[in-house]
Design brief:
Number of helices: 1
Radius of gyration: 26 Å
Strand order of the largest sheet: 1-2-3-4-5-6-7-8
Structural class: mainly beta
Distance between the termini: 88 Å
Helix content: under 10%
């Protein structure tokens, strides 16, 4: 009975905390994401696994006593950075940065523009012609533009 309880305790202590997340992938040195994809973030005893929907998996092992320093499965240095506060984590790899967001809402946009208050405005319902007055130095006679 004691052996069975010990086996159950050991099995449950090895279970990782895991959550669905959103990963924004930034090429190294870029402040623009090249893609936004679903991913799964798992953490167990300091070890982290990020499994991306595009088939890439990052297995990170902690290095030393300094928090945020890791090595990936290929032995490359990876650094966890702050900057997203409670919204997620940033991981800096040699060739890209992975922004892990806890909210996946951006992965599921509204089905129609009526449900999306950020949808682009349209001029289909009215004439939105704008006439601009050019400064005198851009015209040859205060009426005819010098540039087109």
């Amino acid at each position: 009975m004691i052996a069975a309880a010990a086996a159950v305790t050991c099995a449950t202590s090895a279970v990782a905390d895991s959550t669905a997340a959103r990963c924004d992938i930034h090429p190294s040195g870029s402040d623009q994401a090249s893609k936004m994809i679903p991913c799964t973030f798992s953490q167990r005893q300091g070890y982290i696994t990020i499994t991306r929907e595009d088939g890439v998996t990052h297995d990170l092992s902690p290095v030393g006593d300094t928090p945020g320093n890791f090595r990936d499965q290929d032995g490359r240095a990876v650094y966890r950075q702050s900057g997203l506060d409670a919204e997620g984590l940033i991981f800096r790899f040699p060739d890209e940065s992975v922004y892990v967001y806890w909210s996946t809402a951006a992965l599921n946009p509204p089905d129609s523009d009526e449900d999306n208050w950020t949808a682009a405005f349209t001029t289909a319902d009215y004439d939105a012609t704008t006439r601009l007055r050019l400064p005198h130095w851009m015209t040859d006679d205060d009426e005819t533009p010098l540039v087109e």
